[in-house]
Amino acid sequence: MSYTSGGLAMLKSVENTLPTSEQKIAKYILSSPEPVITMTVKELAEQSETSSAAVIRLCKSLDLKGFQELKMRIAGDVQKPSSSEYRDIDKGESIHHIIEQMTHNGVQIIKETEEMLRREDVEQAVQDIHEANSIHLFGIGASGLVAADGQQKFLRAGRYAFYLQDPHMSYTTLSNARENDVAVVVSFSGETKEAVQFIRLAKKNGMKTISITKYGSTTISQLADIALYTSSTQEAMIRSAATSSRLAQLHVIDTLFMSYVSNHYDEVIQSLDRSRAAIDQHKN
Fold first, then answer.
1. Any long-range contacts for 264-271 (C-beta under 8 Å, 24+ apart)?
2. What's the pTM?
3. CATH number of 7-79
4. Number of helices (H), then strands (E), in the chain
5. SS3 at position 29
6. Which residues 6+ apart lie within 8 Å of 11 measured at CB?
7. In angstroms, how far is CA 91 from the centroid of its own chain?
8. Rounded CA separation 212/229 (Å)
9. Residues near 142 by Cβ (< 8 Å), separated by ≥ 6?
10. More confidently predicted of 227 and 92
11. Other beta carbons less than 10 A from residue 193's beta carbon
């Protein structure tokens, strides 16, 4: 996309967790986004019956640089064609409709996750990974599958990467990590007890920390040195949430990995070739 967007998705993601005054502003913007594009802070405060200070606080709650960035993102949203909401699968659906709906949900969450990822944060994360002696990844449940995928990718790229399914073994391995190691914590909610313990232990050891969570202020994203966000998804949460959230998390891991490969192509491509040759030889 040639324009910055994602403002409306960000507001929807955190609307129900905001303080009352900020929530009033969010509701006003979501109901009438177009006029906001040309408003000043004072005008938005008057229209939403709040205060200029509340507008500024909302921008901080969204982890944006200021009101101007929020307006730019909303302007980008207004330019985009509208799309239907996420929808869960019901009993007796046709295979044709399931394929269509799951494809739509997948495309939607990846597009929204693209809007949540700050380019400078991805760049810094890639640099920290390159400078690290080893990479320690952690996740529970579906997030654990994403952490395992990250491990195998960076192992093939010639890096020391650790992911252990047992949290206690992960803590044990992390307790021997050093300051020049990096921890990558994957948790959709950003509040998973084991993941919070993992990132706190990593910080206690002086490690650089990277989180991959849904958009919004969570314990894990607040603790992380670099917080990478996925869309929080608007789909029904009863059955298929892990499907879309996992896809979004994998997209972030792929983005980190491909950015790492691109930035350090000459050294990484040799490791990838060696790992491929080792696998091919084993097949034979």
1. 264/130, 267/158, 268/157, 268/158, 270/158, 271/156, 271/157, 271/158
2. 0.83
3. 1.10.10.10
4. 14, 5
5. helix
6. 26, 29, 30, 62
7. 31
8. 6
9. 188, 242, 245, 246
10. 227
11. 11
Q: What is the pLDDT of residues 24-36, one digit of tens each?
A: 999 999 999 999 9
Residue 161 β-bridge partners? 135
First to last CA, the chain: 45
Confirm if 229 and 214 have CB atoms less than 8 A apart.
Answer: yes
Q: Greatest CA span in the chain, whole angstroms?
A: 72
DSSP codes of every residue in 117-153: --HHHHHHHHHHHHH-S-EEEE--THHHHHHHHHHHH
Instruction: Return the axis-axis angle of helices 265-283 and 241-263, rounded to nearest 10°.
Output: 120
The answer to whether 178 and 203 have CB atoms below 8 angstroms apart is: no
Please give the helix or strand (H or E) that residue 84 lies within, else none: none
Q: How far is CA 34 from the centre of its chain?
A: 27
Q: Two tokens at 269?
A: 């491509």
Give the Cβ contact number of residue 21 at 10 Å: 18
User: How far is the CA of 239 from the CAs of 91, 235, 243, in angstroms?
Assistant: 12, 10, 9
Structure token pair of residue 34: 């177009």
**Fold topology of 115-280:** Rossmann fold (3.40.50)
Domain spans, the chain? 7-79, 115-280
pLDDT in tens, 189-214: 999 999 999 999 999 999 999 999 99
